[in-house]
């Protein structure tokens, strides 16, 4: 890894806790999220349903409902996002961050043309003259693999396939010229071949623009393939954070390891499928101790009574009382 | 993949569903219950004989003996309103019972078999829907002579689309849920799938449609009686009472028309509010 | 036990399934893979008898299955041949019906048992899929996605089918739950000898659970063979592309469509 150690991070989510009213009473849905993204880097946030990964991403965009209570901090280039007023937040979303969602159809007005959708953001939020906006959008569409931009911009969302529409969403996000792109399961609804296309497009755009990426997914393999570092969340807490390249061999948290072992591999014939008993918990269901303790095969008494805090091992973190740490890894880190 | 935002939006609604009913719906339900009770027990509750004329006491104002006063022949208005509840509510009840039963059956049949049958039912309903129900009922009454039977039949047909269209589209959705396919593959008899699964799942919607429809049907029936083609004097039917009271309005004695009109208005609004409230409560989650 | 010959489905001009032919032996496990719109689900629905083919035939246990209306007895005979589990676990269950009642109903179609016999059979089915009495008393909405899918599997097993079709049955579940259901299906195959037909886009699951795989594209079968061969050394360009787009260590996403077009 060649990360500059002293560069101030672009995004720093520090001990984020989110309380939301559920059934009328405030419940903690995210207990502790810690994510750091240096300028231009890609971090994947991995978790199952209820893990709090999407809420964490929405918090970065300032998209949580007004009833949410936020503790801890989310800092973008040193500035607190929860501390922004409405006007600053609009400017922030119009110029510095952009988000791509799982279901593009739900985020594009079905009655308006693709062109209107793409140009509107530029002409209203950034006051770009419309002729210039069209030229710019056409260029970005070409960049995301839509060569016949003129025709596509006249079409409406229902005339485009899911894969094409997701490219349009990416184009809309890139038009903002953000420093950080948030992608919330952008390929989950797509076929694998389309997924590869979309991820390749995001990768190329990042390279060309030095764009940082927060990639939210449930797929560990995909996460490892497209990002520099991987953050694993479970039941509202960050449980592990490590370099993507070391995910497979060096994951220290039992949940990360169990999740890896529960994915049937296409390529490893000998690999045995090991399922995790029980079901993934949501943040608000997390018990007092370690949230994973019910499903962990290495559980001890202390796990049920005391919630483990993230502790460093090498250049990674794991929130576990009994993390796997390989002896060889210790030496490798010091070498 | 289910994510938290889904939980955000469904949880509070689920709470409302199981929690208290909103006060407006409660009041509407109370009013409806009261009038249904009146319809059932009316003659027993009326303080006077609703048809007893009193030539010495016509168009009297409210008094201890006649709380709402008397009409142009000296009949006690309160008693007539109470006794008339049955005549006023029974006809729309019959209309809604027939159109709901028939409409639900039609909707299920069209949804189940699909294809040309569905297209035929939808087309036929469009034709009926295009024809104003009230005019149809008036025409029928004019042809077959005054009385409630003919208008009830006509309105039952006119109200078919109201029930059938909504239930049909819900039934199509329901019929294509995989649990229905699973039951078919298990060898479940079609009648069983209809009666034990589809119908109970559609029932809340049917109930809501019937409740809302009832208000409209009551208004239509009252209008027919008002025109003199439905209930006949001396029945204390409310629409008829509005018409009977009309000449007295000019004489500065609006009470008969006024009270009967208010009674109609209150019942119609109550049924509408109840229907909307039920719809929120019964369909809020699944719709 | 299952033979599919030249199966075909047209919707007007559009050919959804085009001359699909394959066979599945008793107790075998076959996967049909392909992307959305490849015709794999339509193929499964025609095999199950939920949709009428435009051409070709489905032969089960040596007998052709004609389309059309069936008598009650024929329906039950067919039910004991093929059952199906669907993608959406919640919509697969009647939301008003308690789990135990749904299973008892399914048992009732196939066995004439006294009340306590039905109860015992329901308990046995629940046990087979790893559920207990507490879940039997619950409505579907009180269960997790994985539990709902277990109920759907138990209900299918109530007919003791010789073939179980799984139409994207794990696609809507969390990763850790997918593994549980896959393990359960493998155990069911070993314990009951039920043949399995998987309809899926998940090649990892295919590798883990089936013997043979059939790759479909635009309604046609483009490759068919043992799983290890097809996934290990794919022959058809489409299969190669499918395998190449699966994320794995050292994998970098590439734009392939454009390159192929250029």
TrEMBL record, chain A:
It comes from the Bacteria. Keywords: ATP-binding, Cell inner membrane, Cell membrane, Membrane, Nucleotide-binding, Translocase, Transport. SMART domains: AAA. GO terms for molecular function: ATP binding. The keyword Cell wall biogenesis/degradation does not apply. Its main location: membrane. SUPFAM superfamilies: P-loop containing nucleoside triphosphate hydrolases. It is a peripheral membrane protein. The keyword Membrane applies. Residues 11-260 form the ABC transporter domain. It is found in: Cell membrane. Belongs to the ABC transporter superfamily. This is ABC transporter ATP-binding protein.
TrEMBL record, chain C:
It comes from the Bacteria. CDD domains: ABC_NikE_OppD_transporters (cd03257). Residues 2-243 form the ABC transporter domain. InterPro entries: AAA+_ATPase (IPR003593), ABC_transp_ATP-bind (IPR050319), ABC_transporter-like_ATP-bd (IPR003439), ABC_transporter-like_CS (IPR017871), Oligopep_ABC_C (IPR013563), P-loop_NTPase (IPR027417). Keywords: ATP-binding, Nucleotide-binding, Transport. GO terms for molecular function: ATP binding. Pfam families: ABC_tran, oligo_HPY. The keyword Transport applies. The keyword Acetylation does not apply. PANTHER family: D,D-DIPEPTIDE TRANSPORT ATP-BINDING PROTEIN DDPF-RELATED, TRANSPORT ATP-BINDING PROTEIN. Belongs to the ABC transporter superfamily. This is ABC transporter ATP-binding protein. It comes from Streptomyces polyasparticus.
């Amino acid at each position: 890894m060649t990360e500059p150690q002293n560069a101030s991070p672009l995004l720093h989510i520090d001990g984020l806790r989110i309380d939301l009213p559920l059934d009328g009473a405030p419940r903690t849905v995210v207990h502790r999220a810690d994510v750091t993204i240096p300028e231009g880097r890609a971090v994947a946030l991995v978790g199952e349903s209820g893990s709090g990964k999407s809420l964490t991403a929405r918090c970065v965009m300032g998209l949580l409902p007004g009833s949410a209570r936020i503790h801890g901090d989310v800092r973008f280039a040193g500035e607190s996002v929860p501390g922004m007023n409405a006007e600053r937040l609009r400017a922030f979303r119009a110029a510095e961050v952009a988000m791509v969602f799982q279901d593009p159809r739900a985020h594009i007005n079905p009655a308006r043309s693709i062109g209107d959708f793409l140009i509107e953001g530029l002409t209203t939020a950034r006051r770009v003259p419309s002729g210039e906006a069209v030229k710019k959008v056409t260029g970005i569409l070409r960049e995301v693999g839509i060569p016949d931009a003129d025709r596509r911009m006249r079409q409406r969302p229902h005339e485009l396939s899911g894969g094409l529409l997701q490219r349009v969403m990416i184009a809309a996000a890139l038009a903002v010229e953000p420093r950080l792109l948030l992608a919330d399961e952008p390929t989950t609804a797509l076929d694998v071949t389309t997924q590869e296309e979309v991820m390749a497009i995001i990768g190329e755009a990042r390279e060309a623009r030095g764009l940082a990426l927060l990639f939210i997914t449930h797929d560990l393999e995909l996460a490892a393939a497209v990002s520099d570092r991987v953050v694993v969340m479970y039941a509202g807490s960050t449980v592990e954070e490590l370099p993507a390249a070391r995910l497979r061999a060096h994951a220290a948290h039992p949940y990360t390891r169990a999740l890896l072992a529960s994915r049937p591999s296409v390529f490893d014939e000998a690999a045995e499928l090991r399922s995790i008993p029980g079901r993934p918990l949501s943040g608000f269901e997390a018990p007092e101790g370690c949230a994973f303790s019910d499903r962990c095969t290495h559980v001890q008494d202390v796990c049920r009574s005391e919630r483990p805090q993230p502790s460093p091992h090498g250049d990674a973190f794991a929130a576990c009382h009994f993390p796997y740490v390989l002896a060889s890894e210790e030496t490798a880190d010091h070498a | 993949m289910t994510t938290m935002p889904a939980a955000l939006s469904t949880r509070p609604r689920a709470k409302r569903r199981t929690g208290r009913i909103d006060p407006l719906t409660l009041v509407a339900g109370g009013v409806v219950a009261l009038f249904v009770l009146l319809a059932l027990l009316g003659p027993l509750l009326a303080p006077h004989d609703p048809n007893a004329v009193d030539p010495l006491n016509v168009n009297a104002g409210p008094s201890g003996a006649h709380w709402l006063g008397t009409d142009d022949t000296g009949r006690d208005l309160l008693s007539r309103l109470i006794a008339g509840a049955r005549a006023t509510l029974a006809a729309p009840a019959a209309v809604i019972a027939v159109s709901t039963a028939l409409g639900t059956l039609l909707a299920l049949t069209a949804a189940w078999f699909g294809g040309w049958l569905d297209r035929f039912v939808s087309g036929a309903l469009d034709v009926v829907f295009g024809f104003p129900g009230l005019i149809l009922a008036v025409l029928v009454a004019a042809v077959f002579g005054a009385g409630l039977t003919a208008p009830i039949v006509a309105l039952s047909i006119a109200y078919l689309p109201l029930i059938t269209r909504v239930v049909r589209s819900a039934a199509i959705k329901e019929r294509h849920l995989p649990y229905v396919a699973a039951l078919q593959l298990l060898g479940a008899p079609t009648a069983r799938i209809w009666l034990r699964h589809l119908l109970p799942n559609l029932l809340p919607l049917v109930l809501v449609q019937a409740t809302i429809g009832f208000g409209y049907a009551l208004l239509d029936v009252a209008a027919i009686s008002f025109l003199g083609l439905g209930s006949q004097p001396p029945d204390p039917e409310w629409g008829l009472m509005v018409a009977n009271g009309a000449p007295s309005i000019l004489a500065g004695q609006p009470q008969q028309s006024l009270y009967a009109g208010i009674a109609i208005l209150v019942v119609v609004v109550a049924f509408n509010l109840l229907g909307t409230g039920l719809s929120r409560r019964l369909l809020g989650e699944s719709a | 036990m299952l033979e599919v010959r030249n199966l075909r489905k047209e919707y007007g001009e559009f050919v959804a399934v085009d001359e699909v032919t394959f066979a599945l032996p008793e107790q075998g496990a076959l996967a049909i893979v392909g992307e959305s719109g490849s015709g794999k689900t339509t193929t499964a629905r025609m095999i199950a008898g939920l949709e009428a083919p435009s051409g070709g035939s489905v032969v089960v246990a040596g007998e052709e299955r004609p389309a059309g209306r069936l008598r009650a007895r024929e329906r039950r005979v067919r039910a004991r041949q093929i059952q199906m589990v669907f993608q959406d676990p919640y919509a697969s269950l009647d939301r008003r019906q308690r789990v135990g009642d749904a299973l008892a109903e399914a048992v009732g179609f196939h066995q004439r048992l006294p009340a306590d016999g039905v109860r015992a059979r329901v308990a046995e089915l629940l046990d087979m899929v790893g559920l207990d009495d507490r879940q039997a008393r619950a409505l579907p909405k009180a269960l997790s996605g994985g539990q709902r899918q277990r109920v759907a599997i138990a209900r299918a097993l109530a007919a003791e089918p010789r073939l179980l079709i799984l139409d994207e049955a794990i696609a809507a579940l969390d990763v850790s739950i997918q593994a549980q259901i896959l393990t359960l299906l493998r155990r069911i195959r070993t314990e009951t000898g039920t043949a399995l037909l998987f309809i899926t886009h998940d090649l990892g699951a295919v590798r883990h659970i089936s013997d043979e795989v059939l790759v479909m594209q635009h309604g046609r079968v483009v490759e068919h063979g043992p799983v290890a061969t097809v996934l290990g050394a794919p022959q058809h360009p489409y299969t190669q592309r499918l395998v190449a787009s699966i994320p794995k260590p050292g994998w970098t996403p590439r734009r392939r469509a454009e390159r192929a077009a250029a």
